[in-house]
UniProtKB/TrEMBL annotation:
Keywords: Membrane, Transmembrane, Transmembrane helix. Pfam families: zf-HC2. The keyword Transmembrane helix applies. It comes from Pseudidiomarina homiensis. The chain crosses the membrane at residues 76-97, 103-126. Residues 8-42 form the Putative zinc-finger domain. The keyword Membrane applies. This is Putative zinc-finger domain-containing protein.
Amino acid sequence: MTQQEQPCQNIEPLISGALDNELTQQQRQQLHLHLASCEACANLYRELAEQRGAVKLGVQTNDVLNESQSTRIWNAIGWSLLVLGLIPLVIYAIYQFSQDTSIPWWIKLTIGTTVLGLILLFINVLRQRMQAAKSDPYKKVNL
């Protein structure tokens, strides 16, 4: 190992620390002095800074943007058809259940209360997930 490689290995953790804004003033000065004299480390610093900036901005290629837009459209169509198909079935089931005289009123009330509670819980969870999705800091991160 040459003398030039050894200081570079000591500087690499400082490069990561600088990008994360975790260095002391002395460490920053040491890093900047080394970067001024070492082209390899300066290139590494620039490359990592560009990658960090791209991740931070959520830069996506056109293929990814088009795929996500078409996926959103198909999801919206699928959910709309599902809901439109279920609405008449649910209305018919409620009507048949309410008209059935062989079921005692207290069982109808208990089942109705349970179903209503489940629906309200589902709506509440859905509302919370939608609010969380608006402020999700990781939604633009591509894995």
